[in-house]
Amino acid sequence: MGFVDAGGARLHYETSGEGEPLVLLHGNGENLGYFAAQVPAFADRYQVIAVDTRAHGESTRGDGPLDFDRFADDVCAVLDALGIEHAHVLGYSDGGNIALTSALRHPDRVRSLVVNGANLDPHGLGWKFRVPATLGWLLAGLAAPLSATIARKRELLGLMVVHPHIPSDSLSAITVPTLVIVGERDPIPRPHTELIARSIPGAELVVLPGAGHACAEERPADFNACVLDFLARVETHR
């Protein structure tokens, strides 16, 4: 367990294992505990660095904007604290958006990408996510002035309602090996996931049968096997 100060926040991370560094980034409203079934499997071969995103888990919010550029900079702050030049980066949901943003904003720090359940813009969430998130965000806006807890919840919902903004044509700048992995029943529309994979040169797309958005949690053995196979091939062709 460790902490690093960045942009007024205290960022929490946990490390396990030895080998090439592999950063794990969780989704909106969650914490690094989401990867409970991944850390032991990955730590057999890699130095796993699970991070609590700013304003999530044990990481504080800090000052300034709460957006994906800031989150990507935070990933670099954790790597700097550990003396790591670059790492494999695996992101789930909003963590996938952070992973994509990191590869675009700090390309020299990303060794490879595993993107799970990401979206390029709010419409990419699909209506099953976007409608309740938008309703919650609007309702929370009424009570936010009266409650710091509700104001924080609204800010997190805003990461889905008004963020991210990643142009699909910008993904052509990503040159590292990339795996896009998604559950067959993910509410994020398949064409949107296919757009992400198609826009990144050489990216692989894997669909896990029968799994939903949280496919790493629902189908950990299959998810872990796909990721480990991909990373092994990345190392072979380095």
* Widest sheet: strand ordering: 1-2-4-3-5-6-7-8
Q: How many β-strand stretches?
A: 8
**Share of helix, binned:** 25-40%
CATH homologous superfamily classification of the largest domain: Alpha/Beta hydrolase fold, catalytic domain
Biggest sheet record: 8 strands, mixed
What Rg do the Cα atoms give? 17 Å
Count of structural domains: 2
Name the shape in a single word. globular
Number of helices: 8
Structural class determined from secondary elements:
alpha/beta
CATH topology of the largest domain: Rossmann fold
Low-confidence stretches: none
How does this model look, in words?
This protein has 238 residues and is of the alpha/beta class. The chain has 2 domains: 2-121 and 166-236, Rossmann fold, CATH 3.40.50.1820; 123-163. The chain has 8 helices and 8 strands, in the order βββαβαβαβααβαβαα. The chain has helices spanning 39-43, 68-81, 94-105, 127-143, 148-161, 190-199, 215-218, 220-236, and strands at residues 2-6, 9-16, 20-25, 46-51, 87-92, 110-116, 178-183, 204-208. Strands 1-2-4-3-5-6-7-8 form an 8-stranded mixed sheet, with helices on both faces. β1 and β2 form a beta hairpin. α2 (68-81) crosses α3 (94-105). The longest helix has 17 residues, at 127-143. The radius of gyration is 17 Å and the shape is globular.
